Amino acid sequence: MSRFKLKFSSDKVDMMIIHAVSLLDDLDKELNNYIMRCKEWYGWHFPELAKIVPDNEQYIKTILAIGVKENANETDLSEFLDEKKEKLVKEIAEVSMGTEITEEDMLNICQLCRNVLDLYEYRTQLFEYIKNRMMAIAPNLAILVGELVGARLISKAGSLINLAKHPASTVQILGAEKALFRALKTKHDTPKYGLIYHAQLVGLSNQKIKGKMSRALAAKAALSCRVDALGESNSNELGLDHKAKLEAKLKFLEEGGLRKINKQEKKSKEMKSYENKNKNKNFEFKAASDFPVKRDFEETEEQETEKTPQKSKKQKKNKKEKKDDSD
C-alpha cells in the first residue's frame, strides 16, 4: 500500500512543474550567454548589425541568411525584417568598418547560430508544456497570476500543498527573502512584493498602487491555491471571479480611490442618521419641578466649610467646662 502511495502521490505531479521551470530558467541563462558570444564574435566582421537589429532571434536569423557581409545585397530578408531595417542592413553592409573573416570562421559562427535557434524552439515547447501542466494542476492560480509566475511560486514553496499552507503575507513576499532579512537587520522598510511582482495585474498598475495590488493579489492567490490543492473539482471559476474583482479594484484605485466628501455633506449625513434613529422613540417629557435640582459645586463647598468651624468651637467649650469641674 505504501509503494502504491509513493507511485501515485500528488507531490510528484508538482515536481514535474518545478523541474520544468528550473530548466526554463537555465535555458534563458544559456541563451543569453550564447547570444552575447555570437554578437561579440560576428561583431568583428559586421559591428553595425547589432544596433540595426536589436531583437536577438532576428539578429541570429540575419546572420544565417547573410553569412559574409558582402552577400547582404543579394539576400532577401523580408521574412523576418521590416523594409526599413532591410534597406539599412544592405546600405550599411557596403560601408561597414568590420574586418574580413575566413570561411572556416563563418562556418563556426553559423553553427553557433543554429544551436541558438534550436534552443529557442525547445524553449517555446517547454513553455507550452508548463502552461498545460499548470492548467491541469492549478487552474485558478494560473488564471489569476499567470502560468509562469504560478509555476515559480510552486517551485519556491516546494509543492502546491506547501504553497497552500502559506498565508497571504508569505505568498506576497515569496522570492524576496534576501531583501526581507536585510531590511530587518538594517531596520528599513520591508519589501512589498517578491515573485508576484511579475504578475500581469501588478505590472499594469501604477508605482503608487503596486503595493496595494500585490497585497490584494496575494490574498486571492492564497485562496485559489487552497482550492486547487484541497478542492475536489478542477474548475477555474474561482480564479476568473477573483481576477474580475481585482481588475475592478485596479480601475477604482487608478481613478483616485475613495471619493472625497465635503464637511457639510458629512455633517448632513450624520444628522440624517441621528434623526432616523430617534424617529421611532417616544419620549415622555416631565415638568421642570419633577426633575431634581442641580446644586453648584462651589455652594456645597462653602456650606461644608461653614459647618466645620462651628463644631470645633463647641468642642472647645465642652473641653473647658470639663477642666473647670475637675479643678
Automatic annotation (TrEMBL):
Keywords: Nucleus, Ribosome biogenesis
Record-given protein name: Nop domain-containing protein
UniProt entry tagged with the keyword Membrane: no
Gene Ontology terms, MF aspect: snoRNA binding
Skewed-composition ranges (Basic and acidic residues): 264-284
Any one of the GO CC terms: small-subunit processome
Pfam families assigned: Nop (PF01798)
Family the entry assigns: Belongs to the NOP5/NOP56 family.
Feature: compositional bias, Basic residues: 310-320
Coiled-coil regions, chain positions: none
Keyword Nucleus included in the entry's annotation: yes
Protein's organism: Anisodus tanguticus
Cellular localisation: Nucleus, Nucleolus
Function in brief: Required for 60S ribosomal subunit biogenesis.
Ranges for domain Nop: 137-255
Biological processes per GO annotation: ribosome biogenesis
Region entry Disordered, spans: 264-327
